[in-house]
Design goal:
The complex is a heterodimer of chains A (704) and B (319). Chain A has 704 residues and is of the alpha+beta class. Chain B is globular and about 85 Å long. The chains are: A alpha+beta (704), B mainly alpha (319).
Chain lengths: 704, 319
C-alpha cells in the first residue's frame, strides 16, 4: 500500500539524511590537525552583540572589545597600569595658572599694589629675597615664567537669542604663571605672600556692566564665569608617532586627534563620552605631529581619556558625511555620524582590520599587515555571539571557540584538564550591601559596623562564589596602588556586633529581637531579579542578621523597578548591588556629598567633610605618589564609616588550549615560544598580538 | 461567501487597530527604559539622557509618539535604536535565518506525528500505543530548555563535534558539499527540539481523530464488505480523519515570525525569536513593536486562511 509506505518512508529517509551530516563535521582534534588555517584564527565568544562600532559613540562592552582591536588611542596602560604611548610617542604635562590683580586688597608689608608691583614682589620672593616656608618655596621654584596680561575691555553676550544680554567687561590686569608641573596648592601657597583674602576678596562683579538689570546674584554668577579670580589650566602636549597608517592607507596625524575630540563634543552626535572631555578648553594642532591640549581646570583623570580610539577625519568630517547622506538619499542636515555606515564597517589604525559583521552571529577581523608595532601573529580574529554561558562551554569543548568567560562553577571542571591552561585574576569591581544613611538606624556608624560584623563574608566567597573571589575593604580597585592593603577586613564576629548594637541602644527583648525604645530593629534588604549571586547574598545576609535578632525582610525586584523606583528615589533601607570600576581613582559621583540627590549615584547619602575634600584633591592631583597618599586616607575614612558593607571582588578565570602560546622573534632572528602569563594586574591578553596556536603543545623547559 | 470575506476583513482590520494601540501602550507603560537612556551608567549625564529622549521622541506625549511610530513603520523608515539599522531589513534577514529551522522543524513534525498517531490508533491499547502515549506525555511535560541542554551535553561530550550556531566556525576553505552538510548538521538538533513538543501533541490529535473515524458506520461497512485492513485504515478512515488538520495549516503562519525564543537563544541561532527577545531586554521599542505588528497581521491572516480552507475542504460548512 503506497500511502503507508510513504508515511513510514519519508520520515525515515529524512532522519537518515539529517543524521549522516554528522560524518561531515570535524571534531576538536580534526579542526586543528586537519586544517592548518585554523591555527591562525582566534575565535572568542561573547554573550551580547556589539551595537555600534565607533569608539566615541558606543557604550557597551561587546562594541568596545572590537574597538580595542580596530582602533588605537594615543596612550594606554602597560603591565603595571602606568601610561604608555601608543599613537603618541611621548607627552609632557605642565600648567598655566592665572589670577587677576586685586588692586583693593592689602598685601602684608606692602599694602595695595598694581600689576607690576605684584609681579616684582613675586619675583623677589622667588629669588629668595624674602624668606618663606618650604611648601611655598617649592611652589615658587616650580614657576617657570611670570608675565602680566594688561587690562583689556571686551563685550560678551549671554542668554537666549530673544532675551540676549550684553555685558561690558573691563578686565583688570592679570598675572600669568607658567609652571613646570601642575600644582594644585599654588594659590593657597601664594596667599601666604599676597595675603589671605587676596584671591577671595577679588570682586569680579565690579568690572562687569550689563545692559539690563539682572539682579545681584545672577551678576555674581556671570562674574565667576567671566572673570574668575584664579584659574588653573593644565596643559598636555602629545608628540605623535610618525608614519602610522589607517587601514585604508592614509597617514594618521594631529588633525585626526582634534577631529576625534570635536566629534565627541558635537551635540549632534550624542556621544556618551562627552562628560569625560568637558574639562577640555582647547585642542590645538601645533604641527602635524604635535597636539596641545589645554584644560579649563585641574582634572587628573583626564589623561586616561586619551586612550580613546582615534577616528579618521577624512572619512567622517562634515564633507564626507554630507556626501554619504546624498548618496543614500538622506537629508544632509539631519544626517550625523550616528547614521553613518562607518559604524558598521569601522576603519582605525589598530592591529586588526574590520572584515565582516553579521548581527547576533559574528564579527570577523583580519590582521593589519602595516600595523606600526608589527602585525599580530593571528591572521584572523573572530568574535562570536553566543548568548548562553553553557553553550559557550560546549562550543569550547567542541573546539569552535578558543576562549570564553568561564563561570565560577565551571572553573573546577576545567582546572585539572591537561588539554587546557588557565589564568585567573581579580576583576575591576566589587559587590556590596549599601545602607540608606538618611534613615534610622543606619545613620549610626556603630549599627552599620555591627551589620558588617554579623556577616561571614568568607563563607559567601567559599559557597556562593566557589572560592572565585577575594574580600575587599574599600572603594578602590584592589590591584592598583590606590587601594590600601594595610586596612584589614572587618572580622566575622556576631558577639562583637551585638555589643556594638547594645552601645547604640539596641537590646534583645524576651523574644530575642533587638529593640530600642520599644521599637524592633527591622528593615528590608532589596536587590534585583536575575542575578543569582546577589540573591544568594540576600538570603545569606538575612539569615546572618536574623541570628543576632534583627528582623530583616527581603524583596527581589525587576531591574527597572529596582533602579527607577527604589534606588533612584532613595526609597530603600539596604540594597545588595555592585560597582564596575575604572583604574582612575575618581570617586566624585559615588561618594561626594553633592551627589546624594535623587537619580545620583551617592544614593546611600554618604557625607563626610574630610572625604569630600580628599575626593576633590584626588581628582586635582597630577602627582601619582601624592594621589596615592590621598586615596589611602580616603579608603581609611570610608572603611571606618562603613556606608557599605564591602563584600568581595570577584575573580575572572580564562581557559585556553595549551597549544596557544606567545611567539616572539629574538634579536638574532630566532623564533622563541613562551608560555602565556598574566600581568601583575591580571590581564592575560596583554600580549595578544604575539599569540599563536601551534599544532602541538610545546614543552617549556623552565615551566613555573 | 463574498460577504463573509468582506465582513471578516473589516473585523480583522478593527482588531488590528486595537492590537496596535494596546501593544503600543503596554510597551511604553511597562517599567524600564531603552538602554541608551539607562540612568545608572555614570558616563551618562542627565543632559545626554535628555538628548537621547529627544532623538527617540520619548519626550513627546504618547499619542504623538504613536503617530510618529506608525507613520515611520508604514513608510518603511523605522530604525532600530540599538544600531540604527532599518527594522524591516533586520527582520527580513532574521526571518531568512529562522526559515530553514522552521521548515525542517515543520516537516519533521508533520511527517513523524502521522505515522506515530495512526499506528497508535490501529493498535489501540497495545504495548506500542501505551509506550507512545507515555513518551508523548513525557515530551510534552519536559521543559524545552532542559531537554535542549541534555541533548547538547550528550552530543558534544560523546561525539566532540560542534552543535551551536548555524555552522562550524574555523572550517576554512572546503568543498560546498561539506559546507551544506555542516549546515544540515547544525540544523538537526534545534529543529528536532523545536519539533518534539509538536510531534507529541499532534500525534495525540491524529490518534484520537483516527479512533473517532474508525468507529464510524462507513468504516464498519468497508470492513464488512471484506476490504483489506490496510485499505480500510489508509483509504477510508485516514482521508476523513485528515479533515481537521487541513485547517491547521493556516495557523502555522504566525509561528513563522514568532520563531522559538528559547531554542534560538540556546543554540545562538540568529533568528526572529532571539532578536525579538533581545529587543525586549534592551527596550528597543521599534523592533518590538514592528515584530508585534507583523505577527498580529500574520495571526489574523492565518485564522482567515484556515476559515477559508475549512470551507473548501468540508462541504458541510457554509458561512
Amino acid at each position: 500500500m503506497t500511502v503507508r509506505r510513504i508515511l513510514i518512508g519519508v520520515p525515515i529517509v529524512l532522519i537518515i539524511f539529517l543524521l549522516q551530516a554528522y560524518f561531515w563535521v570535524p571534531t576538536y582534534e580534526q579542526q586543528t590537525k586537519g586544517n592548518p588555517q585554523r591555527l591562525t584564527e582566534y575565535i572568542t565568544a561573547s554573550i551580547g552583540d556589539a551595537s555600534i562600532l565607533n569608539p566615541i559613540l558606543s557604550a557597551d562592552s561587546a562594541s568596545s572589545d572590537i574597538e580595542a582591536m580596530v582602533f588605537e588611542g594615543l596612550i594606554d596602560r602597560d603591565e603595571e597600569l602606568r601610561f604608555r604611548g601608543r599613537l603618541a610617542e611621548s607627552w609632557e604635562i605642565h600648567e598655566e595658572a592665572f589670577f587677576y590683580v586685586n588692586e583693593e586688597a592689602a598685601i602684608p608689608q606692602v599694602g595695595t599694589a598694581n600689576a607690576h608691583e605684584v609681579l616684582e614682589l613675586l619675583r623677589r620672593v622667588k629669588g629668595g629675597d624674602i624668606p618663606t616656608n618650604a611648601a611655598v618655596k617649592a611652589s615658587l621654584d616650580n614657576i617657570r615664567e611670570i608675565t602680566v596680561i594688561p587690562a583689556r575691555s571686551f563685550m560678551v553676550t549671554r542668554g537666549e537669542k530673544k532675551a540676549e544680554l550684553k555685558i561690558n567687561v573691563t578686565a583688570p590686569p592679570r598675572i600669568k604663571l607658567v609652571l613646570n608641573q601642575v600644582d594644585q596648592d599654588l594659590f593657597q601657597n601664594l596667599s601666604t605672600i599676597l595675603g589671605k583674602g587676596y584671591f577671595s576678596s577679588f570682586d569680579g562683579g565690579s568690572y562687569l556692566q550689563a545692559d539690563q538689570d539682572i539682579g545681584k546674584n545672577k551678576m555674581l554668577e556671570y562674574a565667576q564665569e567671566i572673570l574668575p579670580a584664579i584659574e588653573h589650566n593644565p596643559i598636555v602636549v602629545f608628540r605623535l608617532r610618525p608614519n602610522v597608517k589607517f587601514h585604508d592607507g592614509h597617514l594618521f596625524d594631529a588633525h585626526d586627534v582634534r577631529f576625534t575630540y570635536e566629534a565627541i563634543m558635537d551635540p549632534k552626535n550624542l556621544s556618551p563620552r562627552i562628560a569625560d572631555y568637558e574639562p577640555v578648553k582647547s585642542v590645538e594642532v601645533v604641527d602635524p605631529l604635535t597636539v596641545r591640549i589645554c584644560y579649563k581646570r585641574l582634572y587628573s583623570p583626564a589623561l586616561s581619556t586619551w586612550g580613546i580610539g582615534i577616528l579618521p577625519e577624512r572619512l567622517l568630517n562634515a564633507e564626507a558625511l554630507k556626501k554619504e547622506a546624498i548618496a543614500r538619499g538622506k537629508d544632509p542636515e539631519r544626517f550625523t555620524m550616528r547614521q553613518s555606515s562607518f559604524n558598521r564597517r569601522p576603519i582605525g589604525c589598530g592591529p586588526f582590520v574590520f572584515e565582516e559583521w553579521k548581527s547576533d552571529q559574528y564579527i570577523t577581523l583580519k590582521r593589519f599587515t602595516e600595523y606600526w608595532e608589527g602585525p599580530p601573529n593571528y591572521k584572523q580574529y573572530i568574535y562570536r555571539i553566543i548568548p548562553d554561558p553553557l553553550t559557550q562551554e560546549m562550543e569550547f569543548y567542541a573546539g569552535t571557540v578558543d576562549s570564553y568567560a568561564v563561570q565560577p562553577h565551571q572553573v573546577q571542571r576545567l582546572k585539572n584538564d591537561p588539554t587546557y591552561q588557565n589564568f585567573s585574576g581579580l576583576s575591576f569591581g566589587y559587590t556590596y550591601i549599601g545602607y540608606n544613611m538618611r534613615r534610622e538606624p543606619f545613620n549610626d556608624p556603630r549599627v552599620r559596623r555591627a551589620l558588617s560584623m554579623a556577616i561571614d563574608v568568607d563563607k559567601i566567597i567559599r559557597y556562593v562564589l566557589y572560592g572565585q573571589g577575594e574580600r575587599i575593604t574599600g572603594p578602590f580597585v584592589k590591584q592598583t596602588d590606590y587601594y590600601d592593603h594595610r586596612i584589614k577586613p572587618i572580622p566575622y564576629d556576631p558577639q562583637g556586633a551585638l555589643k556594638l548594637l547594645a552601645e547604640a541602644g539596641w537590646k534583645r527583648n524576651k523574644d530575642g529581637w533587638l529593640e530600642k525604645n520599644g521599637k524592633r530593629l527591622q528593615f528590608t534588604l532589596i536587590t534585583n531579579k536575575g542575578n543569582n549571586l546577589r540573591n544568594a547574598i540576600l538570603a545569606t545576609a538575612q539569615d546572618a542578621w536574623k541570628q543576632i535578632g534583627i528582623d530583616v525582610r527581603t524583596d527581589v525586584l525587576e531591574w527597572a523597578v529596582f533602579i527607577q523606583e527604589r534606588v533612584d528615589k532613595a526609597d530603600f533601607d539596604a540594597v545588595v548591588l555592585g560597582w564596575q570600576m575604572g583604574v582612575e581613582p575618581d570617586l566624585y559621583q559615588i561618594w561626594h556629598s553633592s551627589q546624594t540627590h535623587h537619580y545620583q549615584l551617592n544614593f546611600v547619602a554618604f557625607e563626610n567633610k574630610e572625604a569630600d575634600n580628599l575626593i576633590i584633591k584626588i581628582r586635582q592631583e597630577y602627582d601619582h605618589k601624592q594621589q596615592v597618599a590621598y586615596c589611602h586616607r580616603l579608603h581609611e575614612i570610608i572603611a571606618k564609616e562603613q556606608p557599605y558593607t564591602f563584600l568581595y571582588v570577584s575573580k575572572w578565570t580564562a581557559v585556553l588550549d595549551k597549544r596557544i602560546v606567545i611567539k616572539e622573534t629574538d634579536a638574532e632572528g630566532n623564533v622563541v615560544y613562551k608560555k602565556i602569563t598574566p600581568t601583575k594586574t591580571g590581564n592575560y591578553t596583554f600580549h595578544f598580538n604575539k599569540w599563536i596556536k601551534l599544532p602541538e603543545a610545546p614543552a617549556f623547559s623552565a615551566e613555573r | 461567501m463574498l460577504s463573509f470575506i468582506g465582513r471578516s476583513i473589516i473585523q480583522k482590520i478593527i482588531t488590528l487597530v486595537f492590537v496596535m494601540v494596546i501593544s503600543f501602550l503596554i510597551i511604553h507603560l511597562a517599567p524600564g527604559e531603552p538602554s541608551q537612556v539607562d540612568p545608572l551608567n555614570p558616563k551618562f549625564t542627565p543632559e545626554m539622557v535628555e538628548r537621547f529622549r529627544k532623538a527617540f521622541h520619548l519626550d513627546e506625549p504618547l499619542h504623538i509618539q504613536f503617530v510618529y511610530f506608525y507613520r515611520d513603520l508604514f513608510t518603511g523608515k523605522t530604525v532600530s535604536w540599538k544600531d540604527n539599522e532599518p527594522v524591516l531589513k533586520k527582520i527580513w534577514g532574521r526571518f531568512l535565518n529562522s526559515l530553514p529551522l522552521f521548515i525542517v522543524g515543520t516537516i519533521l513534525m508533520w511527517t513523524l506525528a502521522f505515522p506515530v498517531g495512526i499506528h497508535s490508533a490501529i493498535f489501540r491499547g497495545g504495548t506500542y500505543d501505551r509506550s507512545a502515549t507515555f513518551l508523548s506525555y513525557f515530551l510534552i511535560s519536559i521543559p524545552g530548555f532542559f531537554f535542549a541542554y541534555i541533548l547538547i551535553l550528550l552530543v558534544v561530550n560523546t561525539f566532540h563535534v560542534p552543535v551551536i550556531g548555524m555552522r562550524t566556525f574555523g572550517l576554512g576553505e572546503t568543498s560546498w558539499l561539506r559546507i551544506i552538510m555542516d549546515r544540515t548538521w547544525h540544523l538537526l538538533l534545534p529543529s528536532l527540539l523545536g519539533a518534539t513538543g509538536g510531534i507529541a501533541v499532534l500525534s495525540r490529535y491524529v490518534r484520537s481523530q483516527m479512533l473517532e473515524v474508525e468507529s464510524q458506520d462507513y468504516v464498519r461497512t468497508a470492513r464488512a464488505k471484506g476490504l483489506p485492513q490496510e485499505q480500510v485504515h489508509y483509504k477510508h478512515a485516514l482521508r476523513n480523519a485528515l479533515l481537521p488538520f487541513v485547517t491547521m495549516f493556516g495557523l502555522i503562519l504566525p509561528a513563522l515570525i514568532g520563531g522559538s525564543v528559547i531554542i534560538e537563544s540556546i543554540f545562538s541561532w540568529p533568528g526572529m525569536g532571539r532578536m525579538a527577545f533581545e529587543a525586549i531586554l534592551a527596550r528597543d521599542y521599534p523592533i518590538i513593536l514592528t515584530v508585534n505588528f507583523i505577527s498580529a497581521v500574520l495571526v489574523l491572516a492565518g485564522t482567515f486562511i484556515s476559515d477559508l480552507l475549512y470551507m473548501v475542504v468540508d462541504p458541510r460548512i457554509r458561512l
